[in-house]
Specification:
5% strand, 3-stranded antiparallel sheet, two-stranded antiparallel sheet
Length: 403
Amino acid sequence: MDSYYFYADKPSEKYNKSDVWLLISILLLWGFGIFALFICSQNYALRAFNNSYYFVVRQLVCSVVGFVLFLIMFCLDIRVIRKMLVLIVAGSLFCCILTFIPGIGVELNGARRWIRMPFNFMFQPSEMVKFSLVMFLANLFDKQKMIENPEEKNVMPCVIGMGIFLLCVLLQKDFSTTVFLGMIGVLLFFVTGTKLMWIFPAMIIILPLSFFLVVLEPYRLYRILGFLRPLEDTSAINYQSMAAKRAISAGGIWGSGIGSGLVRLNSIPEIQADYIFAGWTEAMGYVGVLFYFVLILFFAWRGYRTALRCPDRFAAYTAFGFVSTIFLQSILNCMVVCGLLPSTGIPLPFFSLGGSSMIVTLGMCGFLMNASRCEESNYTVRREGENCMEACDLFKGDYELNT
């Protein structure tokens, strides 16, 4: 079977036009996300704040900040962004520490995940960690790739760095985000060609520790028990899940409509946040669901295409991590809403109410657009009759990282 060599070692001084289709998919996701928030939250916003547009206005304000970050990440040279990585990582860790400082950090339901901001806004540092962790690992993997002596290569800096990020988020009692970040980290280890033999002994520690962390917090255990027994305790632990399923079923093929669907949405707590996909499904029906999945798959295709074609290895690894973060988070959220996974508290990118998520997601998209404009002529593509994964130099495991 024919395959390709991807040589990503050449500099990225020359740029071409950005991927217009990637930009269109980003704008469509953002636009329909604002639309979904409007149709799902206006009744609750009217009751709680006497303003039907309360949540939409706040999301638009955060979107403005997000698009500023989008433009910064799009316009800056990738090498400049890489030089700023120390500040990005230090800022992420510093913000995580701020959540524990009284008067600055905000505690809700026993968790300290937010920082108080002006104008009654709150920022969630764990969202920023998603951004910095991917860039941190991409930088280290690229440096390891450039080391010619196999004996000098070492996976431990990557493992220790990722462990520090995960610990910072875990101490905020955000277990689901910690697990998700671990998934993204392991995925980057895999696609960059790192030998994963260290994972097996690590699992001996991670699995019992995860079980202990689940049992340590009763609400985590209740979520898992509720997932395993979905028809029990539907008035308490499974209430939100059952209400979401009823809303999804009520949508039918074509949906209940923008206005008529709002009445049923009142039964779903925090419909504007993690369960907004249920509101979208009821209002727009299975046709709307199909449209959403086509759109998110199209975004993922253009994003992964950008990662494979980018001539700068650091940018390629980062782009792959950012696309995976947005895409996998979207799929996981939809699976939770449909009852295929336990409740996690992970938002739906572009759709769920959350300024931190919107700002960071648009920042990731800005970097993707930056990486997409690297000229295809800056790297060489050769047809060879070899295995594709072995031939791809961009994600090629031709080195061993010793522990």
